[in-house]
Amino acid sequence: MAMLDTTFDVDKLTYEIFSILENKFLFGGYDDPKLKQAPVIQQQLKPAKPAAGGSKVRILSIDGGSATNGILAAKSLAHLESCLRSKSGNPNASVADYFDVVAGSGAGGILAALLFTRGKNNHPLFTAEEALGFLAKRVGSGGKPEGILGKIFRQGKSDEKVYRKLFGECSLKDTIKSVLIPCYDLATRAPFLFSRADALEMDGYDFKMSDVCLATSADPAVVGAVEMRSVDRKTRIVAVDGGIAMNNPTAAAITHVLNNKQEFPLCNGVEDLLVVSLGNGESDSGIPNRISTPGRFIRIAGDGASDMVDQAVSMAFGQCRTSNYVRIQANGVLGKKNHSLEKSTKTHKKSVILAITEEMLAQKNVESILFEGKKMVDSTNLDKLESFAGELIKEHERRRTTILPTVVLKQASPSPRTSSATTLSTWSSSC
């Protein structure tokens, strides 16, 4: 097998995955000691030079709803925000302060909108704890649950009113950091990525945040597609659930950063990233018998796609995956509390749900190991979040001493560029 010519214009993520695969099969294992005896491969595996000053772009990715419909991710973020406040000594620290990019799909997209839309005094609209309370309250008042935790967002006029009341006239331009929220556009039959960067460059890509939330969480089995238009009324979207486009948007967020030199001028590869990817639990334990077979397959397919993204991203990070990338995902604990939630009253549903998320976060973390599938590690999901909070704070402090900017968020529209939706399609076809 010939070595891949690095002079080719190959997508960075694809190239790194291919390189690791090639090394595995040629030399008996990425972590094999024999690699140290192969000077050519040793040189190839040498980590790329980090960005100037060692600074890293911080990415938060939140999966679409599955077994827990956003509650696990919200609880994870509440714990992370608490750790950030404790470790930094700032009681008002927010998740948005410590991330440069957020990508969220489905219920994850709504979480991203709540935590990264600008509110009063330039602070986020919601704290992580408030966002968790918002989701838990809607489960607790949402009637009979479907599955274990129920359907959080029962689309319809009531949800539209809730989002419009929450976000008012805020649009993608009013988000604090770089925001990426997907949906699937039936009008073009392609994924569409709502993007702050696109909105700042072209009014035709600026949408109200209330519409963005409706689009990314539109369940086709409940309300069908949701039609909407951009703020300038020129762009029309016929949207369904973002989870159909990408249940796990981590790869899309990484691609956005690596191909966006205007906002992230010093980021050259995955070694220049810090990524937190939040899952929402597996769907195998908790799908009630009344859910149709097609519905089961859709959920299983969504979880499978999320796992594939996790595996690919983990391989792309290679040797720095344990320090630069963390995946928080629960595995099969919901069944224990199935009857408890089904029989609980509205008053008790919230406490039961939060107890479930506590149990999930107390589980041992599962990592995707190169060429060896998933492996359970000694640290718990809570341990991983606390450890990564420390890394985020180190990066925050590091930037105080660097001259060159790690991130230059767009504030105006100097020139048109390809939309994120087009970029996403290009990336998908190249992999």
From TrEMBL:
<dbReference type="GO" id="GO:0016787">
    <property type="term" value="F:hydrolase activity"/>
</dbReference>
<keyword id="KW-0378">Hydrolase</keyword>
<keyword id="KW-0443">Lipid metabolism</keyword>
<keyword id="KW-0442">Lipid degradation</keyword>
<comment type="similarity">
    <text>Belongs to the patatin family.</text>
</comment>
<feature type="short sequence motif" description="DGA/G">
    <location>
        <begin position="241"/>
        <end position="243"/>
    </location>
</feature>
<feature type="compositionally biased region" description="Low complexity">
    <location>
        <begin position="412"/>
        <end position="431"/>
    </location>
</feature>
<protein>
    <recommendedName>
        <fullName>Patatin</fullName>
        <ecNumber>3.1.1.-</ecNumber>
    </recommendedName>
</protein>
<dbReference type="Pfam" id="PF01734">
    <property type="entry name" value="Patatin"/>
</dbReference>
<feature type="region of interest" description="Disordered">
    <location>
        <begin position="411"/>
        <end position="431"/>
    </location>
</feature>
<comment type="function">
    <text>Lipolytic acyl hydrolase (LAH).</text>
</comment>
<dbReference type="InterPro" id="IPR016035">
    <property type="entry name" value="Acyl_Trfase/lysoPLipase"/>
</dbReference>
<dbReference type="InterPro" id="IPR002641">
    <property type="entry name" value="PNPLA_dom"/>
</dbReference>
<dbReference type="GO" id="GO:0016042">
    <property type="term" value="P:lipid catabolic process"/>
</dbReference>
<feature type="domain" description="PNPLA">
    <location>
        <begin position="61"/>
        <end position="254"/>
    </location>
</feature>
